[in-house]
Amino acid sequence: MRIGLFGGTFNPVHIAHLIIAERARDELHLEKLIFMPCAIPPHKTTQKVASASHRLDMLKLATRNHPRFEVSDLEIARGNVSFTVDTLQALHGMYSCSKEEMFLIIGEDNVVEFNTWKNPDKILRLCRIVAVKRPNVNLSENDPVRHPDFFYIDAPLMDISSSDIRERVKNNKTITFLVPAAVEEYIVSHQLYRQS
Q: Mean pLDDT across the stretch 63-75?
């Protein structure tokens, strides 16, 4: 079974996340793409984050009509800071798949930081890494930080970010078409992101 893992804070999930996930699913012929919201983001400790249960609920709403998208609470259930290497090991225990069938989807901006992650060599033994193009990041073919074992896929470059969405909500601006309608309704009904 070919499985993609798309981890993140998803604070909140937005349209660009979904488009990237679908592009990766399609290009990599994935049978399942797992969205994995983290409990506590390891590299964003100063950022105010909506509760894990809110972020999980919003992801479920955003993906509920896609038969190959799944949302996992594995990292949330673990609590505290989770590391990719631990999540990949757990997924290998849950699914019988080889390194060649497990794909970790990251933004191209994470390529630069990959060697600072916990056990990057072990991550490379557990999965294939797929880097998706991001706005304002342009790694050339010969850039020394481009890892030779990574796949690079193009996705539409959309300048949509969770931080911008949170700022728009805080300032009473519309987020229509930036997030799925069900996610927008959830944010409004739960009064998320209203305060700084």
A: 97
HSE-CB at 182 with a 13 A cutoff on CA atoms is: 12
Structure tokens at 52: 């894990």
Report pLDDT for 46.
57
Report which secondary-structure segment, H or E, holds 37: strand 32-37
Distances in whole angstroms, Cα of residue 164 to Cα of each of 24, 78, 167:
24, 29, 5
All domains in the chain, ordered by first residue: 3-157 (3.40.50.620)
- Whether 106 and 131 have beta carbons less than 8 Å apart is answered as yes
Give tens-digit pLDDT for 119-154.
999 999 999 999 887 655 565 554 545 566 788 888
Contact status, residue 175 vs residue 62, Cβ threshold 8 Å? no
Kindly report the backbone phi and psi dihedral angles of residue 102, in degrees, each rounded to the nearest multiple of 5, phi listed first: -110, 125
Instruction: Name residue 13's amino acid.
Output: V
In this structure, the number of other CB atoms found within 10 A of the CB of residue 80 comes to 9
